[in-house]
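Bug #77: duplicate submission created two jobs. Keeping one. Sequence:
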Amino acid sequence: MLPFFIGCCNQNQPVFPNGLEPVATGWETKNPNLLLNSSCISCHKDIKPHEDRHSYSWKSDLFQEALKIENREWCVHCHAPLSKQKEIYYRKIKNENNISQSDLHLLNEGINCVSCHVRNGKILGYQKRTIGNHEVVESNIGKPEFCANCHQFNFPIFKDDKIIYSNHPMQNTYEEWKSSGIEDSCQSCHYSNHKLVGPNNREWFSDQFYDFAIDTSEEELSLTFKMTTRGHNLPSGDLFRSLVLEISKDSKFQSIIISKRWSRKYELMEKNSKESFGKKLSIDTSLLASKKKIQLIFDKPFISPIFVRLAYYYHDPVLAGKSNVNPSPLVLFKQKIY
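Kept job's structure:
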């Protein structure tokens, strides 16, 4: 595990406490409205935090479904990381009546501006300076190590009221980046005008795949595509994502006859009455960062018509079972073969 600290002001300052407790900004005792995105964009008018993918960390339907199944503080500490958000959430599930609309708005913001940018009442930046009323301290906020605070961690083990971490990665994106040899930072690929982009952005993600080609012979079917340079495996991050090439007898892909899945499968570790263990990786077919061209050859189906598509699943039912949310996969390529 990485140390979740940065050096500033001649002291070690916690940034993200490893999911073990909520984030403290140093603004909690001031006007609580300072924690809202609206207090930031009143000056930073070009920033649109509601368009940033981090803003869905709490209100994501998939996350809310998972939280109902396994309601743990550890989950709240990452998806609504502020101490004030945690307080609001537990007041809400107790059906307290004194929760304001402003409180609910703050909770729904999830990972908001101050979650990343404010510690000890100071703004985290690239260099030490003063801007207006803000004291800015130097930090690693623009470097991959900052992203690793949330996107590199092992499976937790819940033992009574304690949390310890196993030796098995739950999200391994930062280590994948280090192993890739790619010098570009996370931010150089995934941030555009202070807006986080990734697989949930159709236009951006579709541009990562190109040169789709289909060839047929009397007995074989060949499918080829290429991918742009990337700094980690695909898929990475969330457990139940997958990239799947599917061949179907119908254009709605309800009768799939051939599929090739790039994903990760996990199995449960031991359990007993006092300890709840996490999972560990059992099968990994994800595409390495170095893999830029894929060619697949299948026995040619002797039926007609047949269709092919390349799809990215945000919650693959093959890996995770059926979900009541069941988000549709992002179709990156689709074509009738014959």
